Amino acid sequence: MLQLSGSFLNKPVLSLRSGGTIAWAISPIINPNNLKIEGFYCNDASAKRQEVLLYQDIRELSRQGFIVNDHDALSLPHDLVRLKQILDLHFELIKKPVVTVSKQKIGKVSDYAVETDTMYVQKLYISRSILKSLASGSLSIDRSQIVEITNSRIIISDLLQGEPSPATASFA
Fold first, then answer.
1. Any residues with CB less than 8 A from the CB of 15 and at least 6 apart, and which?
2. What is the DSSP string of 8-70?
3. Which residues have a Cβ under 8 Å from the Cβ of 158 and sit 6 or more positions away?
4. Same structural domain for residues 54 and 121?
C-alpha cells in the first residue's frame, strides 16, 4: 500500500513490552542510491536524545504509530556502522530540485509516496513554478523515470511534449 511521506512524520513509536510510547519518529533516513527508507530518526521519550529506528525492527505500521517489540529496537546513530555513509549524507528528498536529462527545470519535490511493504519510494510529487502550474498543474514522477540522484538535484528522463501525433492526418 502506498502512503504519503507525511503519514510517517511525528508518529509515536509504541512498545509491545511496555505498552506505551518510547519515542517519536521525526524524519526518515532515505538511501539516495535506491530510494529506500532505511529507518527513522526518533526522539527518545525517556533518554531525551536522538536515536534511530531501523525499518526491519518495526513489527507493524499502524495509524497509532510504529509498533516495535521494546526499547531495544532503538539504536544510537554511531552504533550503526553499516548505515554510517547514509547517515552522514543527511539526504532530504523534500524540496530537492528536479530536472530532465536535457536540463529542463521541472520543479521541486513537494511530497513522495512510499510502498509500506518494502519502504521504497515509488512516486515523487513535484511542485512547479506558478506559471507552469497554471498551465499544466502539478506533476507526479514514477521511480522508473528517475535517471540519477545527486546531492543537489534529481535527474529524470525527458517528459513527453505535446507534439501532434503522426496518425492524425486530415482528409479532404
1. 21, 22, 68, 69, 70, 71, 73
2. GTTEEEEETTTSSEEEEEEEEEEETTTTEEEEEEEEETTT-SEEEEEGGG--EE-SS-EEESS
3. 100, 101, 102, 104
4. no
Please name the helix (run of DSSP H) or strand (run of DSSP E) that holds residue 133, with its range, or none: helix 130-136
Considering the entire predicted model, what is its pTM? 0.83
Conformation bin of residue 6: beta by default, left when phi > 0, alpha when psi is -120 to 50? alpha
In this structure, the answer to whether residues 80 and 118 fall within a common structural domain is no
Domain ranges, residue 45? 2-89
Q: For 10, what's the count of Cα atoms within 13 Å in the CB-facing half-sphere? A: 1
Model pLDDT for residues 10-53, shown as the tens digit of each residue: 999 999 998 899 999 999 999 999 999 999 999 998 878 999 99
Distance CA 122, CA 103 (A): 23
